[in-house]
Known about the structure:
The complex is a heterodimer of chains A (115) and B (112). Chain A has strands at 5-7, 10-13, 19-24, 31-38, 42-50, 53-56, 65-71, 74-79, 88-95, 105-106, 110-114. Chain A is mostly beta strands and 115 residues long. In chain A, strands 2, 4, 5, 6, 9, 10 and 11 form a 7-stranded mixed sheet that branches. A 4-stranded antiparallel sheet of chain A has the order 1-3-8-7, with no helix packed on it. In chain A, strand 5 (42-50) and strand 6 (53-56) form a beta hairpin. The model of chain A has no long low-confidence stretch (mean pLDDT 93). In chain B, the strands form 2 sheets. In chain B, strands 2, 4, 5, 9, 10 and 11 form a 6-stranded mixed sheet that branches. Chain B has a 5-stranded antiparallel sheet with strand order 1-3-8-7-6, with no helix packed on it. Chain B has 112 residues and is mainly beta. The interface between A and B is medium-sized, with 23 and 21 residues.
Amino acid sequence: DAGVIQSPRHEVTEMGQEVTLRCKPISGHNSLFWYRQTMMRGLELLIYFNNNVPIDDSGMPEDRFSAKMPNASFSTLKIQPSEPRDSAVYFCASSPHRDRDVEQFFGPGTRLTVL
Amino acid sequence: ELKVEQNPLFLSMQEGKNYTIYCNYSTTSDRLYWYRQDPGKSLESLFVLLSNGAVKQEGRLMASLDTKARLSTLHITAAVHDLSATYFCAVDAGSGTYKYIFGTGTRLKVLA
């Protein structure tokens, strides 16, 4: 299995621009999670989906952030407009739904820099 | 609200020595996970602990879970340089959710 796939791996953009991060979960996994990692705040869960439905978005920092999962094999996290404080590494993770005995598997991450 | 604390935050140790990383959490949970992260890399799963008293071992690492004390430990035996990384524990938030709450991480540096 290819594991969780994220793109792009690195993104540098200017303040005010729209940024879209992409994730393909492991096939057969129908829980998908978006995390943000910074030195100051550590690993934060932004939103998670079960069977393509957003279940908990309480970690999404503000309305500038939005996430979608149009099908079982694809999710996006969009920031519009981006700000320098959004600079972080964004991880996508997936796990089998209803199987809490199996851990979450993480993608390689997208390193976002907003200038 | 579930809170997860790890200590120490930083650990520098000599090769060949033993040490333990602690993970405390604030509310009831019976599932805990340990991950490793190398600099600039993703998180790699190390251990899945699913019940009180669970103990898992892989090489020089051993993890245990005491749900009554709300404590998990990650013990390092005879450390080697390759174990240098940041180690995270993550606690299942439970209540029908599939959320993990991650600890702050312990940055381990093993000196040759």
